[in-house]
Amino acid sequence: MKFKFLLIGIIAVLFFSVSAESADWLNYVEGKDGALFYVDMESIKPTSENTISISKKVEPAGSSDIASVLSEVEMDCNNSMIHYLKETTRFKDGKSQSSWKNEKFRKVTVEDNDEALLELICSLKKSK
Predict the structure, then answer these.
(1) How open is the CA angle 118-90-124, to the nearest 5 degrees?
(2) Distance in angstroms (rounded) separating the CA atoms of residues 47 and 52
(3) Rg (Cα) of the chain, in Å, rounded?
(4) CB atoms within 10 A of CB 121
(5) Residues 6 or more apart in contact with residue 48 via CB below 8 angstroms
(6) Exposed / middle / buried, residue 124 (Cβ in 10 Å: 0-12, 13-18, 19+)
(7) How many angstroms separate the CA atoms of 91 and 79, rounded?
(8) Range of the domain at 85
(9) pLDDT digits (tens, 9 = 90+) for 26-73
(10) Which CATH number fits the domain that encloses residue 17?
(11) Number of structural domains, the chain?
């Protein structure tokens, strides 16, 4: 049983690695600290009438050990809300660590770097 979970975990990491490398990353904002924020344009998919799922990547500025953080996110355009489903941290030494999130939707605020992402994704939804 333990082997089965290990095998599933390895396959998931490899799949996420391959999908991240073949992604169509668009830089949508630079944080106040110099971090770069990207969205995978190929990952944008409606999950319901009001919600959209996307993959986003953050490359922190000046981090000595973290190369990037990949996140699977769901957004609610009607209510300006977001929640994180999964995060994978990629380290500069080549290792990675994934964690499933159990967040509830939260309101996106003006001070939030996710505001630019919400505006971009929701404007694309309206134009379709």
Answers:
(1) 20
(2) 5
(3) 15
(4) 22
(5) none
(6) middle
(7) 34
(8) 2-127
(9) 999 999 899 999 999 999 999 998 899 999 999 999 999 999 999 999
(10) 2.40.128.710
(11) 1
